[in-house]
Write a structure and sequence with these properties.
With 420 residues, the protein is an alpha+beta fold. The chain is 39% helix and 13% strand. A hairpin with a 4-residue loop joins β4 and β5.
């Protein structure tokens, strides 16, 4: 007859059900395993390792605690670099335009992969992103990208040029990373999106009323004077201006239909594309001075067409080269920069004329209204709505060289933030 073991010698259970197991492996390391919440409201057995029993148990306890809070474990264990490659080639390429995708790819190649690419996606923390952005602000890009090695300059000869990224570029890098991580969280490749505060952007200084007057005076003798007037008085984007055709304008009614943009892409060259958003395809009212400028520009274009003879390339665009070809957006930027220097004005982007339009109108007392309709541009930086009323009120913007709305019109602005 077998004698029962005394109670003191029986094996007691040290961990409760659901707490996982901890044991030592043959290689001397400790392994802890347990079931945690996975995607699809399922359970998954995970294993963690440590040099001591305490280390392995602490890692398992951390995963169990996150699981109890309802945070699922990541479906895959890939690096940030591998996920960004997938996101660029399989996700972003179908959601953004070609030029935007090229900028995304350059941002990933030059900044995100060197700074965060080696980290595991599932283990990326807000501290990692914050540290990366802080380092990006103060690091010389000439040294980081090893441009100085080939040219034997900068840090290669012990004289750093301190060529740092602008605050606007750092903000753009952050926005690209944020878009990729948000998609990873939606696809359960990331337990939760890594929340980090956006870097502070530069404060924009639009043209003042006197600067607008000075700019328009300098542009009065330029062959593209009508384009600059349209940019300042209507807030149209550069691509929208260059994509205008004469068939889009009704000079008798004083309106213009925005239907396309003109851009240069790496594959298609100089080509027309749809507007930035669906709501950006719109009809706008043209101020009186714009109508005069456009009529004068049409006469000038007819003279250039006669002078060009058989070399003229008829394409119907409002703004062309003297030979009738579409204007490359990059060439317009160069011309605009030269005009600013000629006028003795500070350098701004062409897109900043769009912001200057809004600021000037608000300064002159045009009443902002949170209205949206068929006359809007579709984003927070441009016209919200222009609706015909019987109001006799008009805003006199002659001091800035900007006439008020045409009689019988009242302008409405979107109340959202100013972003182009």
């Amino acid at each position: 007859m077998t004698t029962p073991r005394p109670a003191s010698s029986r094996r007691t259970r040290s961990r409760a059900n659901g707490d996982g197991t901890v044991y030592q492996r043959k290689d001397g390391r400790w392994e802890a395993a347990g079931y945690v919440l996975a995607t699809g409201n399922t359970r998954k057995r995970v294993r963690v390792y440590g040099t001591t029993r305490k280390d392995a148990l602490a890692k398992l306890t951390e995963k169990l605690a996150a699981s109890n809070l309802g945070l699922p474990v990541a479906a895959t264990d890939i690096t940030v670099s591998a996920y960004l490659k997938y996101w660029l080639n399989d996700v972003a390429v179908h959601q953004v335009r070609e030029n935007t995708h090229s900028r995304y790819a350059a941002c990933v190649r030059l900044h995100l992969n060197p700074g965060l690419g080696a980290k595991k996606l599932a283990r990326l923390t807000a501290r990692d992103v914050r540290t990366f952005l802080d380092r990006l602000r103060v690091t010389c890009q000439c040294c980081t990208q090893e441009r100085d090695t080939d040219r034997r300059s900068c840090c290669a000869i012990g004289q750093c040029c301190n060529k740092r990224l602008s605050p606007l570029t750092v903000t753009y890098v952050h926005s690209v990373l944020k878009s990729a991580l948000e998609h990873a969280a939606r696809e359960d490749d990331l337990p939760r999106n890594v929340k980090t505060p956006a870097p502070r952007t530069r404060r924009f200084k639009p043209f003042t009323a006197s600067e607008v007057q000075q700019f328009l005076h300098a542009a009065s003798s330029d062959r593209l004077h009508a384009l600059y007037e349209l940019a300042l008085r209507t807030g149209l984007r550069k691509g929208e201006l260059l994509g205008l055709r004469w068939e889009d304008l009704d000079l008798d009614a004083g309106t213009a239909a925005v239907r396309r943009t003109l851009q240069r892409t790496s594959t298609g060259g100089l080509t027309t594309l749809p507007t930035k958003t669906r709501a950006s395809e719109r009809r706008i009212a043209l101020p009186t001075r714009c109508l005069h400028s456009l009529k004068h520009h049409h006469e000038q274009q007819q003279r250039e067409r006669h002078a060009a003879g058989t070399e003229w390339q008829h394409n119907g665009y409002v703004f062309t080269t003297p030979q009738g070809r579409p204007i490359d957006p990059t060439n317009l930027t160069r011309t605009f920069t030269t005009l600013l220097r000629k006028a003795g004005l500070r350098r701004i982007r062409f897109h900043d004329l769009r912001h200057s339009t809004a600021t000037l109108l608000l300064e002159q007392g045009v009443e902002p209204r949170s209205r949206r309709g068929a006359w809007r541009s579709g984003c927070g930086t441009s016209w919200g709505r222009c609706s015909r009323t019987r109001s006799s009120r008009t805003s006199s913007l002659s001091g800035a060289g900007l006439p008020g709305p045409r009689p019988g019109w009242r302008w409405y602005w979107c109340s959202s933030s100013w972003r182009g």
